[in-house]
Amino acid sequence: MLLHSLISFGFCLAVATSKNILLTNDDSWAATNIRSTYQALKDAGHNVLLVAPASQRSGWSSKFDIPPVNTLQTDGEFEYIKQGDPAWGHEENDMNIWYFNGTPASSVAFALEYVIPTYFSSSDENNQTAINNIDLVVSGPNEGLNLSPGTFVISGTVGATVASVFRGLPAIAFSASNTNNSFFKDSLNDDPLEPANIYAKKVAEFVNTLFEKQGANDRALPLGVGLTVNLPKVGYESTDESCTDPSWVFTRITGAESAAPNLLYDAESNLVKSNMTKFEALTVCYNGDCTLPSEASIIADDKCQTAVSVFSIDFDANAQITENIHSVLGPLFQ
Ligand SMILES: *[C@@H]1O[C@H](CO)[C@@H](O)[C@H](O)[C@H]1NC(C)=O
Ligand SMILES: *[C@@H]1O[C@H](CO)[C@@H](O)[C@H](O)[C@H]1NC(C)=O
Ligand SMILES: *[C@@H]1O[C@H](CO)[C@@H](O)[C@H](O)[C@H]1NC(C)=O
Fold first, then answer.
1. What pTM was computed for the model?
2. Pocket residues for ligand 2 (CB within 6 Å)?
C-alpha cells in the first residue's frame, strides 16, 4: 500500500512538472519576449513548441490567414528569414522553434495539424521529446498591453488564445508593457533587469502554479475558458527600476479606465487620426465578479501589479438580459 502510494505520488509529480506547451504570439517568432519565455519555460522543465508568425501580426485578432504559396513573398520580421524562403520552417539548430507565414490563430492550427503530427508524435511513452497532446497554449508575452474589451477583440495575442480555447485547449494570453518590437538577436540576454527576462520568469511562475493545481486532472482550465494577463512596466522600464517581481491581481475585462480606439476628424488637415477613448459601454458588468477591479485600472495605477482576467468563449448575454430582449422581440415570433 505504502509502495503503491509512493509510486502514484511519484507519477503525479512527473505529470505536474513536465508539460507540453505550445507557445505563440503576434510579434513574430523572432521577437525577444517570446524567445526569452521559450527559454524560461524550457528551464522550468517543460516540453515547449514555439510556432509563431513569420512577421509582425499585431492587431490581426483571430483572423485565419494561411500562406497563399509555399514560399515567402516578402521578408519575414527583422529580415531574419527572406523573401523566397519556405512559407514555414524551423531554426536550423532547434526543431522546437518554428515560423509560419500566417496569423497567430492559424499558427496555432498549423502547429496542431501539421508540425506536431509530422514531427513530434510517438507511440513510445518514454520518448521525452515527443508531443502527443498540448496541455496549454501560451500566447505572448505581447509587446504591448491588451486591456479592456476594446483591445481584447483586436489583439492577435488574444486572437491566438481565443482560437485555442475554441479548439478545446486551455490557453493564456500574456501582454506586456514593453512596446519595442525588438529582434532577439539584438536584445536577448541574461540581464535580470531586462523586461523580457522578468516577463519570462513571471510567465513560468504562473504556468507552473496552474500545472501544480491541475494535479491529476485532465485539464488546466475548464473547457471554453481562457485567461488574459497584462503585465506592468518592469525592470529598466519601471520607475527607479523598482518593479522586478510584480504581484498578481485578479481583475475583470470591463470596468474603470477601459478604452477602445476612436477616430477623430481634423477639418484643417482633412485627415483622420485615431486615439483611445473611454466609452461607458466598456464599464458594464453583466457577467463574472463585479467586485473585481478592471485590468485597465490596475495597470493605470502603476503599482507593479499584473492583471489576471478570466474569460469564456460563451459570448451569449446572460439569461436575464436574453429574456428581456426576447420579450421585446416577442411580437416577431408570434
Ligand atoms: C522521439 O520522438 C520524436 C518525435 O516524434 C522522434 O523524432 C524521435 O526520433 C523519437 N526518439 C526516439 C529515441 O525514438
Ligand atoms: C528596438 O528594437 C530594435 C530591433 O531589435 C533595436 O534595433 C532597437 O535598438 C530597439 N530600441 C530600443 C530603444 O531598445
Ligand atoms: C482622444 O479623444 C478624446 C475625444 O474623443 C479626447 O477627449 C482626448 O483628449 C483625446 N486624446 C488624445 C491623446 O488625443
1. 0.93
2. 180, 182-183, 186-187
